[in-house]
Amino acid sequence: DAKTTQPNSMESNEEEPVHLPCNHSTISGTDYIHWYRQLPSQGPEYVIHGLTSNVNNRMASLAIAEDRKSSTLILHRATLRDAAVYYCILRDPIYNQGGKLIFGQGTELSVKP
Amino acid sequence: GAGVSQSPSNKVTEKGKDVELRCDPISGHTALYWYRQSLGQGLEFLIYFQGNSAPDKSGLPSDRFSAERTGGSVSTLTIQRTQQEDSAVYLCASGAGSSYNEQFFGPGTRLTVL
């Protein structure tokens, strides 16, 4: 699976949108882009994933660049509960058939009241 | 429904002792993963089960580490002759059907080796 690059940390104000960037310039055509987050003292939890098209779910939106070399996780209205480490992970079903997650350092998001 | 559960939640052991960590996945999930999270290494993959077999053991750090899964359900991670560098949070995750479905993580077992 190709490598991703994320900022180490970001800050947001409560109830404002947050855009978390991820660069993956060596992404392959079969890599899916997955986002997980880890709240303090908890195991990671799935947020969203996509391949080429933008995706929305109840937690967030995923905007994927046309060349797929970058993506952005969008939290539409940050809450204090969204303070977590956010991981952008590429998973290739061809070369990673087991689906294991390869975590990078992630982005630590802090949310100010 | 019930999520992934792990036991014990905390384990303190002395260097050189063996420990067993247990994971109960979500019922019906065929895929099961073990990861560990330590301060120096971040979150790292250890082993993957599909049913009772482990097609990917590439993350196990040494032959002191082993894992098994029985009945396509419960899994046990065993660490023999524990070392201080084994201190970490050990996380289990399970997934349904396709390995590309989302993984559901348990709360982890915090292992401290004195």
Question: How would you summarize this macromolecular structure in one to three sentences?
Answer:
The complex is a heterodimer of chains A (113) and B (114). Chain A has 113 residues and is mostly beta strands.
Could you explain the architecture of this structure?
The complex is a heterodimer of chains A (113) and B (114). Chain A is mainly β and 113 residues long. Chain A has strands at 9-13, 18-23, 32-38, 45-50, 55-56, 61-64, 70-75, 84-91, 107-112. A five-stranded mixed β-sheet of chain A has the order 1-9-8-3-4, with no helix packed on it. In chain A, strand 5 and strand 6 (61-64) form a beta hairpin. Chain A is globular, with a radius of gyration of 13 Å. The model of chain A has no long low-confidence stretch (mean pLDDT 93). Chain B is mainly beta. Chain B has no helices and eleven strands. In chain B, strands 2, 4, 5, 6, 9, 10 and 11 form a seven-stranded mixed β-sheet that branches. Chain B is globular. Chain B starts with a strand and ends with a strand. At the A-B interface, strand 4 of A face strand 4, strand 5, strand 9 and strand 10 of B.
